[in-house]
Amino acid sequence: MSMHHSGISCRGNAKLWLFASSGNTSHELGLVAISAIGLSRPKSCQKSGETPVTNAAPVPASVLEALARYDTPTICNAMEVIAPERRLIGYTTKPLVCPFPDLPPIVGYARTVAIRSVLKSGLPADEQARRRIEYYEYVGTGFGPRISVIQDIDGADVGYGAFWGEVQSNVHKALGCLGVVTDGSIRDIPQWAPGFQALAGSIGPSHAWVHAESFGGEVRVSGMTVKSDDLIHADRHGAIVIPYDLAAKLPDACELCGRRETPILEIARSKDFSLEKLKAALKKSAEIH
User: Fold this and answer.
1) E strand spans, 157-245
2) What is the CATH number of the domain that holds 163?
3) N or C terminus: fewer CB in 10 A for the chain?
4) Is the pLDDT of residue 53 over 70?
5) What is the share, in percent, of the chain residues with pLDDT greater than 90?
6) Is residue 11 situated within a structural domain?
7) Do residue 173 and residue 280 come from a single domain?
8) 29 versus 88: which is more confidently predicted?
9) Are 196 and 120 in the same domain?
């Protein structure tokens, strides 16, 4: 897995921005700072034109590569072993559409965005263009690789307009993202960036007035709460947040889960299956630690 470590994290301090649709084919990404609530860019976050600062990623690349060898359900099983208190939290709980089910699992740091599409923006085009760069700087810097996590806040109209399509999938891939997890809609499936994973609430034809209300803050997608720079594991089944301090423990826990399942699966798939043999396999499984 290719790792990108340029830039730095703004975890917990990310500046929120507003940015909005112009209705054009560049996928409408103008944005404006929310100065009224007193937020400012953290000193550690680089501005355009500054020399990038490189910090060590919170989880070693080797651990991310190890996690990517397992599907997301296995990661969830392993999480229950090492952190049983997280059995009911930290993962998607509602169905998401995956147009590319054969792509391998992805593991990366979250880039969070909140969008809506039923309201038209009042920002002038030049302001949108200038602010768009701020958004792409956020997406393209920080710990890597990255995964875009986007919440559609249109309520009953969630998914009305697609933020994602041919342009955004290719741009975000070029910026170091591995895929997107969103409860909003996506489109342009045949023209989608090759190898760029997608989990979405729906597939639709139009982007309507889609625009981002903010980025870098906390979002909630399909029951999963995510903060900027959270470590995400995702595949065709859904996604899960992996706390940094648990990441290195998960591969061994995944192997343990596999060893426990083996005797049960062996007898279940055997032509000599019987209830008595199943009971014996369950007992053997329970004794594996």
Assistant:
1) 162-164, 177-182, 185-186, 197-199, 202-203, 211-215, 219-221, 224-226, 231-235, 238-242
2) 3.50.30.40
3) C
4) no
5) 73
6) no
7) no
8) 88
9) yes
In 68-132, beta strands by DSSP E: 106-116
Provide the domain limits for residue 63: 17-244
Count of the separate structural domains present in the chain: 2
Spell out a b/e string for 16-53, using b for 16 or more CB atoms within 10 Å of the CB, else e: ebbbbbbeeeebbbbbbbeeeeebeeeeebbeeeeeee
User: Which residues, listed in sequence order, are joined to residue 30 by a DSSP beta bridge?
Assistant: 20
Per-residue pLDDT, 128: 75
Report the alpha-carbon distance of residue 125 to residue 4 in Å, rounded: 32
Question: How far apart, in whole angstroms, are the C-alpha atoms of residue 55 and residue 85?
Answer: 31
Query: Look-up: residue for tokens 């009224």?
Result: 36
Residue with the two structure tokens 């990517």: 68
In order of 23, 157, 201, the CA distances from 182 in angstroms are: 21, 14, 6
Q: Could you tell me if residue 179 is inside a domain?
A: yes
- Residues 26, 22: Cα–Cα separation, whole Å: 9
More confident residue, 48 or 121: 121
Same domain, 149 and 277: no
Q: Is 8 inside any structural domain?
A: no
Backbone angles phi, psi at 248, to 5 degrees: -70, -20
Lowest mean pLDDT, pick from 51-60, 150-159, 218-227: 51-60
**What is the model's pLDDT at position 55?**
65
